[in-house]
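Lab channel / #folding
Pinned by the channel admin:
"Please post every new chain as: sequence first, then the structure tokens as a reply. Keep commentary short and put observations after the output so the thread stays searchable."

First post following the new format, from NK:
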Amino acid sequence: MTITPKPLMYFFIAVLIALLEIPAGQAAGDLNAAIRDLQHGWAQINYKAAKSEKVSRFGELASQAAAVHDQYPDRAEPLVWEAIILSTEAGAKGGFGALKLVKKARKLLLAAEKIDPNTLNGSIYTSLGSLYYQVPGWPIGFGDKKKAERYLKKALEINPNGIDPNYFYADYLYRQKHYAQAAEYAQKALQAPARPDRPVADAGRRQEAQSLLDKIHQKRSQLEWAPTRHIA
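Reply from TO:
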């Protein structure tokens, strides 16, 4: 049967209408599923993959996150997760090659902030804060301890009991040698409520928080037992 031009036009119009009438709830569900895939993939690579595989696998996952952003350009979540993946890839890669990745991650997070600053329980500010205290300062990178503290405190305002903001603020304080405060926040990270949909990430972060707390206790013990110097 030959389709004449007019029925053919009606056919394409019908297809377009069907696409446009996808329920908002279904679209949101698809986005949530895509974000869960990114979260799961990140946790598996970060905490389970062999060290030699991490850089390449994070690169593939970052491309997947970018594709999700292309599909949902008006949503902040894919930008945040692409930034988190790139930041973690930078940590696995190390050296000057990581600077390009963290600069892109910062750019993505700032773009996400303009769309929805409170998305993902303040993850934008947790991620920005962690970047600013871990990236070297000028002239090598954009690291800035004051900005780091400001962003981390903002993350805690949004999500005061979350495992990630408490862990990263504890790590920041430890690096600034504020050991008593660092211990307090590391303990809060260990006591954070479980996230039922993120068991691998929670288990890995708790191990990191416990390791950090052990280092803090060791530093405090060394300070307490350090011999006092007297001027002869």
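NK: The chain has two domains: 34-144, 160-222.
TO: also worth noting, Residues 55 and 92 are 6 Å apart (CA to CA).
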